[in-house]
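Figure 6 in text form: structure in, sequence out.
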């Protein structure tokens, strides 16, 4: 009798594992294939008239990357390291039917956008930005401790010359560069790191994003009913 129960539990666990694995694969595929509303391009162009169509496509690629990272992190914190991508996310939420479908199909719950803190100083990162850095580096095959270039999400604001955007420097010894924004290679340190490479970090939190660059406060996406 005991053996039969154990065999049943093993079979059930195997079936459940494969079901959840397939579901996550389907959710990932949905995010990758998601067609953003045409109106989203228009609203971004209105907010940033200096951007080209190619620039808008880069922003939407960054937004899609962020959604994938949120999915990979499950219920843990993932900050938005780009002001323009955060703006695109805000605009996407206004397309309520599309956003509701996205939340249902990709996450199985509604993703709320609330306030949180992401980075307390240019060299001290909170959990959300640490996780965003690790996931973005993995997505782009970049060594998070010794990056040779920035992942897209961390490079967009400077690349597209976004006013009040978030700027990240790889060379943290360069004071002129570091003073203009955040030190990317220090992300993951609980305090300032020596040299030009940062250490990996520990986990924590739910979804979050940047906002006011003066104090690292920003917007956050939290799963709920």
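Output sequence:
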């Amino acid at each position: 009798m005991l053996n039969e129960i154990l065999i049943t539990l093993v079979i059930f666990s195997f079936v459940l594992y494969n079901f959840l694995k397939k579901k996550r694969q389907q959710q990932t595929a949905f995010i990758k294939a998601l067609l953003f509303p045409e109106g989203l391009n228009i609203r971004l162009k209105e907010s940033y008239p200096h951007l080209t169509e190619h620039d808008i496509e880069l922003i939407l690629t960054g937004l899609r990357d962020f959604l994938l990272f949120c999915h990979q992190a499950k219920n843990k914190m993932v900050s938005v390291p780009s002001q323009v991508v955060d703006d695109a996310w805000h605009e996407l939420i206004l397309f309520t039917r599309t956003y509701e479908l996205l939340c249902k199909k990709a996450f199985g719950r509604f993703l709320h956008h609330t306030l949180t803190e992401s980075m307390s100083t240019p060299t001290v990162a909170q959990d959300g930005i640490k996780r965003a850095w690790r996931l973005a580096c993995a997505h782009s095959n970049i060594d998070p401790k010794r990056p040779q270039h920035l992942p897209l999400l961390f490079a967009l604001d400077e690349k597209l010359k976004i006013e009040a955007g978030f700027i990240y420097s790889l060379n943290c010894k360069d004071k002129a560069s570091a003073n203009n924004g955040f030190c990317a290679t220090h992300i993951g340190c609980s305090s300032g790191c020596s040299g030009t490479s940062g250490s990996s970090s520990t986990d924590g939190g739910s979804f979050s994003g940047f906002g006011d660059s003066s104090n690292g406060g920003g917007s956050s996406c939290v799963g709920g009913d």
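Caption detail: The two ends are 41 Å apart (CA to CA).
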